[in-house]
Hints:
This protein is α/β, with parallel strands linked by helices. It is built from 5 helices and 8 strands, in the order βαβααββαβαβββ. The protein has an 8-stranded mixed β-sheet with strand order 4-3-2-5-1-6-8-7.
Amino acid sequence: xxxxxxxxxxxxxxxxxxxxxxxxxxxxxxxxxxxxxxxxxxxxxxxxxxxxxxxxxxxxxxxxxxxxxxxxxxxxxxxxxxxxxxxxxxxxxxxxxxxxxxxxxxxxxxxxxxxxxxxxxxxxxxxxxxxxxxxxxxxxxxxxxxxxxxxxxxxxxxxxxxxxxxxxxxxxxxxxxxxxxxxxxxxxxxxxxxxxxxxxxxx
Length: 203
């Protein structure tokens, strides 16, 4: 399977708490819900298309617990059947069991276990949110594709998908589009380490 990271970002790179003020208040974050005003039907159709490519889902503990609490109750949502039915993996050193079935807990050497999951037949193993997990797997060279939906807002604080001191990564733009709500959606393929050059030098 291909490992695909799907993240909602602000213009200043924040990925924390996009969906609601109380979604993730860790570290005193009080600016959640910044993505919601820019949602529209076109983006929801696009997100549905992406989800239709998934054969399994991968989460960090915090995102998993939020999703496991909410999705089983959202039976009238068009994505509910897929989200609840797909095989799920959660990377956690504290969880010993998970009841959002079917779920497998990955602990210990998580990158090695994710690499093993990727070797299974299928299309996409998708990470939804879970920025810290995405960072670690990008650093390990396991991410194949990034789908970034960037909202036209500067949040000003909060955890970022690409923090200072993060591992460098080369990317190739595969596609880009905008939605009526102002979202800029970029799809990138991982290319390994970045290339560097000097402006104005001869080819």
